[in-house]
From TrEMBL:
Residues 42-53, 61-110 have a biased composition (Basic and acidic residues). This is Eukaryotic mitochondrial regulator protein-domain-containing protein. The lineage of its organism: Eukaryota, Fungi, Dikarya, Ascomycota, Pezizomycotina. InterPro entries: Ribosomal_mS45 (IPR021036). GO terms for cellular component: mitochondrial small ribosomal subunit. Residues 31-41 have a biased composition (Basic residues). Residues 1-20, 30-114 are annotated as: Disordered. One of its GO terms (biological process) is mitochondrial translation. GO terms for molecular function: structural constituent of ribosome.
Amino acid sequence: MYDWLKGPGKAFRKPLGGSSNYLSAYDKFGNLHRSRVRRRDQRTDIDEGKGNDVEEDEESAAQRDMEDQSLTDDDRAIRAEQREMAREARKAENEETEERGGVPRERMSDMRPYPLNQQFRSQPVLSEALREQLYIQVSVEERDLLSVAASFGVDIRRVAAVVRLKTIEKQWEEEGKTLAKSYSDAVLSMLPTTPFKPDTKKAITPHEPINDLPVHPHTRQQIFYPASESRQFTREDAAKVFSAKLLPADQRIPLPMLVDLEKWKLGGLDRQQRQARQVQKDREAREEAAAKEAKRIEWEARTQRVVKGRRWDFQFQDISAEKVGRDGRGGEAVGYRYGMPHVDRKRGIVKIPTSVA
């Protein structure tokens, strides 16, 4: 043990800042794997003279695209945008490496806290600055949860949980309760985190996949559906083939607004214009929801009569006997709410909340 503490274990006495510092990230001599690989790649590039080859390759690729007659103007624009994104990614990686003191960012192989368990990898958590920003966006600026989740690349359920926990934290601070800040900082320093950099103009770092579509039970069957070659078979048509009540994928995803953002991006709008348009749509959605709620309250005040009681208030509403339906169990029929049997005692019935409103 003492030999290990004096040898490779010396690197853990003063852990590397901004890194997870797992055992799998170091070799048996205490050297950081990714730093050694980076130095080797740099020496190889210098020996082979690859300093300016990347720019020359991009220029030659752009020249080949211009000479290729089979490509359209849209194809050339898409390829140029892909090269620009790759150039920005390399530039961002180099800048981040410089900020870390020449140490590159962790790789997937560096995320294994248990060297003997090669399958388990530590997942990143939200940084304290990102949590605070999520709370400000929802509670202070009163932005919609869906928009915040789409803007920061965080799942909507995680955003709701962060807002609730931050609200409790603010309440405890007002009450003068002591918070375990040192413990929280120590844990966050040992885990990979998703940062929040408000001063940079680069795109945000997404935390997790936020628009994954769960497999619907109706789509698990294999169907051979004949369609004409001249017909444009869309997602709506495919959904109707599986089930008449099944919505298409564009409407079943958690964040349909991401489809609009991608369309605006392909339409040539920059990031500021896309954000402004999304804020406008959020404002219109809030106004529509407020108008719908006001209409509902006005309808209840017009159609319902409230009789004050000693312990409870009784509400009466005029009901038409003609709305019972063919089987007598219409949705607006009398006794539908109180006359139908409950299914609470049946097996397999979920009785706990399964979503965040």
